[in-house]
Amino acid sequence: MLVPLPILDTECLILRPIITSDAKDIFEYAKDFQITKFVPWYPHKTIDDTNQFVNKIIKGYEEKKSGPWAIVYKANNKVIGTIGFDQNRKRENISESSVNFGYCLSRAYWGQGLIVEASLITIEYLFNSTDIIEVRAFVQVGNKQSERVLEKLGFKKDPTIRKKEISKGQEIELECWILSKSFFSF
To answer: Does some domain include residue 42?
Structure first.
């Protein structure tokens, strides 16, 4: 779908494929319990955890599988998060024209509008350059920060789509938020 990933540029950010040397920056935020509270992976304990994560993504790029962009903050040229789309139709039972959307951002950069900025450019690219007409985001109940981000982007909660999953050994409930291409403002 999005292979190879294009480089996307905004006022404050560059979105580009992840490279090996990004591991140090990613480890800085991936070890933070607050960052991993609402994601399906545990905090990274060592830089080796992050190196494995980075190598898995790079291998996916090489195998022509889409993977996340690195979110690079222009002011310091630091990787401060990741953002991407997933078309795992078997897991999510979604159509060819839909994708799942997710992101992760270093806590040091929360509250600055950066994830909205990164999301807007990636969704705009997706809607303008592919056949995708719907983006979904599954948000864990209680993740108010992500709900606010999705509302700013124009996503609407679909009360008919909820699911339960096991994440980090505990059952969690997820709500589905949907953005249709026809309602997205370019």
So the answer is: yes
